[in-house]
Amino acid sequence: MNRLALALCFLSLTALGQPPSEGEAASEDSVESTCPEGFNTDEGDLSDSTVLGAMQVEVDGRGLAPTGLELHGLQRLTDPQVRKLVGAPPADTSRPLTATEVQPLLHRLARTGLFARVEPRVRVSEQGPAVLDVTLEENPTVTSVVVEGLQDLQPQELWGSLFETSSRSDPDYDDDDDVTTLRIRTRDGSLKVVSPCPPPHPPRPWLARREGGAFRPGIMLGGLDAALDRVLKTLRENDGYLLATVSATLSPEGQLTLTVDEGQLESVEVRGVDEAMATRVQEALGLRPGDVFLRSDARRAMKRMESRLPFLRAVDSEDLDEERTGVRIVEERGTDGTRTYRTQEESRRKSRRRERVDFEVGWARMFNIESDVASDGLTLEGKRLIVHVRPRPPDLDVDLLPVHTQVTGFAPGLKASLRIFDSRDRVHTTLEGAFFIPLRLGGQRIPGDPEGTRRQRHVNLLGGAKVQLPSLGIEELGAQVHDFIDTLDRWRLGDFDSYFYSFLINRPDRDYFRREGFTAFATWRWAKSWLAGVEVRGDTLGSLQSFTPPLSLFRSDDPPFPNAPVNEGRFRSAVVRLEYSSAAERGTRVGSLFRTPETALFERHDNWKREPLLRGFVTLEVGEGPGAGGMDTRFWKLVGDVAMDLPMKWDTGLSLRLRAATGHDLPLQKQEALGGWSALRGFGFKEFRGGDSSVLASAEYRWDCLGVFADLGSVHAASAWSDAKLSLGTSLHLGDAVRFEAAWRIDERARLAPEARLLFNRTF
What we know:
This protein is mainly beta. Among the domains are: 63-138, membrane protein fhac (Ubiquitin-like (UB roll), Roll), CATH 3.10.20; 395-605, no CATH class; 611-763, Porin. It contains ten helices and 40 strands. The strands form nine sheets. The chain has an 18-stranded mixed sheet that branches. Strands 7-14-13-18-17 form a five-stranded mixed sheet, covered by helices on one side. Strands 15, 16, 20 and 21 form a four-stranded mixed sheet that branches. The radius of gyration is 39 Å and the shape is elongated. The chain starts with a helix and ends in a 5-residue tail after the last strand. Residues 18-47 are annotated as: Disordered.
């Protein structure tokens, strides 16, 4: 009982001694008046006593009201138990019921969840009073439960759905918190505590339930058919077993045998393409008859299909659930008292289709953001999966290029790619191009060289075309022409990171040069994870100078970030490469408009499967161009870069990287250097440069969002290797790509303050 109410009652009784009149007492002592407002009108209940009038009975025009209540049909429960639960007067009470009391009592009986049927009848004798005769049919009593048929799930995963609990089953429920009514007399302000309302839920010991890890027998609250319906909805809607069915048998003794079929596919049918292509779609899906069918498996299968067969796309549907047939639980009763329950499919809802335009504009590729939305295109007919596909229309991708460097200032532009698919998978064509325009902002210039300033503000252009020939294993066969400002430092720092820190603090951590010429290339992919390629390059290179003053948000008063010179003139070279990526999928894009011998053609994939990943490449470039003395010189350069991810558990794992490069008679722009982000973090940008060889090793261990890393590297220059340089650091991960890193150099120039960056791209 509420302690505050007792205190108020005590104060009122001691302060106000005037008793109420006999008429007032009689009008205030009814059961209905003791219950708080809303007790009889549960949310969503249409049988609201404020709408539905009191029940009335007329015989020969004479109004009669039931003055007594009799309960029939009880088996497990007793008459006094039910009367106390709903607040009905005892059977032997001398006070007759009023018409306004009868209706709330019937409402409470129906809402207890204990009865499958409540049938009220008014019995009228010739001379005696009218009596309300209520026939009750209790919900089944369950004495034991056996669950059969599960393959993937465990029986305990279904208990919460099978046994509906009430608030009284909450372990925090306190019987002392039963509702108590405090009556206030408006005439004299007196207070009176009256009898509590009947409990809103049946006592827990009456109910079938799971308690203390064991089953407790009792009445099935809400009925067994409703409980099985909850189990079925949990399997299909929450757990994703879209073909699951439930059946059950309840013996007369209360033994419940629950059989769960998680749902196996009978067949997979592909519509929208010819028979030969349908066979390839089925192979790409990887769904086999007899497999347990899960929504998550279906969506991954469609994503895999679109990755391996990018020239096809799923036909849109509103959602997998929208394409499902409705289901309900049907009860049948045997003559011996046995009850059986089964799942019955209802009529299919009509599916709706809508068209989609494949057009994307944004920063997704710049930030390595990939859509995680699964494709539609799946419907079910019974236990048969129907896959709806169609040829993919031309796909246009347009991305912004927010270029900002020390030699261009702010140079916005666009990059576009148009892929034209062949529905018969013979020849797929890609047209791609890009441009960016250095703007004249902040008075930037090259001191004393107006002609050089104008030259560095020229529009930068790239354009190319390539074809894919799947039947021959040719992933790329094409060429491009270009006249733009390029860099060989993309392996060190991602494009957006370099542009961002160039604008923010005048630290792009890249060297640039002018490159004008062409590239022809061919790439052969003989297996899912392997590719080999060759490139022929012919370029004229020119040195660039940093603009003054720097166009940056901070450190604009500092000297311009230095840009290293290159050997100028005409260069010709050939590049051969070999690459491997265990995460690569058939049909994923290969190559880039901004291709260099120092970076891979395979895109870096996020490890969403949390499986060990190995990726790496080797390139060998042999060429000829102006050397240190200005005369044409032959050179060669070999680069190898290998990285491995070893997940320990979710968001915890070890990443390793080893990069090595060597060469002979290298021009200035191709000489090796270490220092800076992703290339010996914590040290200055290219602090150790001018080498013909280098070795860099990195290791990082990550615990959820926190990580620690170490870099170790050395450069070979002037016929000697430098001392091995070590850096240590820590990282805060804000996703698979975005992270904050702080690094300290470990040598005689070490200091307490670290070098720090917020990075948006991963380069290895």
